[in-house]
Each structure stands twice: as structure tokens, then as C-alpha cells.
UniProtKB/TrEMBL annotation:
<protein>
    <submittedName>
        <fullName>Zinc-binding dehydrogenase</fullName>
    </submittedName>
</protein>
<keyword id="KW-0560">Oxidoreductase</keyword>
<dbReference type="InterPro" id="IPR020843">
    <property type="entry name" value="ER"/>
</dbReference>
<dbReference type="Pfam" id="PF08240">
    <property type="entry name" value="ADH_N"/>
</dbReference>
<keyword id="KW-0521">NADP</keyword>
<dbReference type="InterPro" id="IPR011032">
    <property type="entry name" value="GroES-like_sf"/>
</dbReference>
<dbReference type="InterPro" id="IPR013154">
    <property type="entry name" value="ADH-like_N"/>
</dbReference>
<feature type="domain" description="Enoyl reductase (ER)">
    <location>
        <begin position="10"/>
        <end position="320"/>
    </location>
</feature>
<dbReference type="InterPro" id="IPR036291">
    <property type="entry name" value="NAD(P)-bd_dom_sf"/>
</dbReference>
<dbReference type="InterPro" id="IPR013149">
    <property type="entry name" value="ADH-like_C"/>
</dbReference>
<dbReference type="Pfam" id="PF00107">
    <property type="entry name" value="ADH_zinc_N"/>
</dbReference>
Amino acid sequence: MRAVVLDEPGPVEKLALRELPVPEPPPGWVRIKVEAFGLNRSELHTRLGLAEGVTFPRVLGIEAAGVVDADPDGVLEPGRQVVTVVGGMGRTFDGGYAEYTVVPREQVIPFSSALPWETLGALPETLQTAYGSLTTGLDLREGQTLLIRGGTSALGLAAASLAKDRGATVLATTRNPDRAKALALHGVDHPLVDDGAVAPKVREIVPEGVHAGLELVGTPTLPDTLAAARVHGTVCFTGMLSNQWIVKDFYPIEYLPRGVRLSAYGGGSADLPPEVFQRYVDRIADGTISLGPVHVYSMDQIRAAHTDMEQGHRVGKLVVRV
């Protein structure tokens, strides 16, 4: 099979497309014929040497969409449509940047859909993280206000769609003024141009502050996102688009605004029940919800795709169609 291998951290040229043996699934694991896989900041962090606990050489990829190719225990039938996310993929065992991947059955999510694979390949990790952040991380309710810091990322767009679906009012940021229109077209109620201090702009719209904030940029913008939240509001730290996630010399009483709560989210397939995934797949298929644009590459274009992700050239999700 063909697979994208990283022998050691480094620049995009370290990504090598190679022929590898098709892996054999042990008991309790499933082999998936990968049809498409999404690109994620997690893989960028691994390539840059920022991720912990990674062993090399490694086939990258924390998600994949495809069909069951082999299940030694006979639980999942061959040809069954499935997605899989995280659980060590692309870090402690080989991941989804390949024509076949072998993963624990417990992290496989079955579904049924006639959507094209490039659309389905954009969903598992983005949908899992957006859904988990809004539910577990923020407990977002109908009628509440949500600020998304990093709104034109694939995760930001997905979170906006899911928040609107839950009946929330959404404010979302972009550093590029030209992309504010894209946020509005996506259904964001209040697109904001991020100049580093959006809290005053937020309070012009919601004087008491937002009920919830979703931090996708990282620690450089976290204090300002916290400042945009109301008393008893919650900010969930989920993303690190800035590649920075450590708060140095953290003194909670000084760092956190009075009465504002700080949570975090990092989940897996168990946080995205099959019935929830199927419901959103069906709603995407009938056009009642969109998670944003999808930009499709071939495996031969993996270096170009990683460059576009690293440089922020695209709005939306980057997907490789295998």
C-alpha cells in the first residue's frame, strides 16, 4: 500500500510517500480501507516536533474515513462504512495517511451515507471536537451567546454550525478582514476582525459578555477571550492554531477574570456516539447544515496540503482523497 511516512520531525520535505506492507489487524482491531482522510493541526505539531509521545518512523493521521476491510473477530462486516479518530492514531501507532490503517475496534464509528468520500473525510475529527467542545467543554444551551476565537478554521466553522443548530447566537473572529464575509455567509451572526483585542468589540454587541467562548488560537489570545466572557461564563480551550498551548507562571486569581470559568476539551471517538455522527451526516446530506468548505488533494500532493495548512492558505477543511 501507499502511505505517508515521517521518519523524524522537520519541514514539509520530511513527508515521504512510500510503499509499505498492508498491515494485519490483531484480535480486537479492524483494518480499514481508507477512502479519504482529513488534515489536522495535530499532524502539523507532530511534523514540527511539538507533539509528545510520538515514536518514529510513523504514518501520520489522527482520522480516516473508509470501509471495513478485515475484522478478525467478525464483528464488523467487510464493506461497512466507518470513520475512526485519535486513540493513538499517527502517534503511538500508524494512522490514516495511508491506503489502509489498522485501529482498535472500540474507536470505529459505523455509519451509512451516499455522500462523496471527500465530504465524509472532512467530518470525523472536526465533528468530534466541535461537538465535544460545545457539549462537554461548554454545555452550550439554546439562547446563549458563543464567541469562537479562530472562526475560519475548519473546527471554527464546524463549531459555528453546531452552535447555530443548538439555537445559540454566534460571534466568530478572523485576522483577515477579507474573510469576515465568509463567516457571515456561513451563518455567523457577528463576524469580528481580530486585531488582538476583541473583548471590547464583543462587549459592544453583548455588553455583559458572552455566555461561552471557544478558544481555538491558543494561549496568546486566551486572556482576551476570557475577558469577553460574562460572570459565570465559560471559556473552553480546545485549539492551538498558534502552536502555543502553555500558560507560563499561571496565577489563577490574576489570570482569570472574576467569576469566569476556564475548561478544556480533548476527546476521542467515545465522545461522538454513532447516532450523533449519523444524525449530522444525514443533515449535511439533506443540506440543512454545512461544516464549511472542503479542499481536496491527492496523496501525491500531501506536501502542498501540509504547506497550505501550516500557512493558513485555505478557509475550511483540507482532505486527501485516497
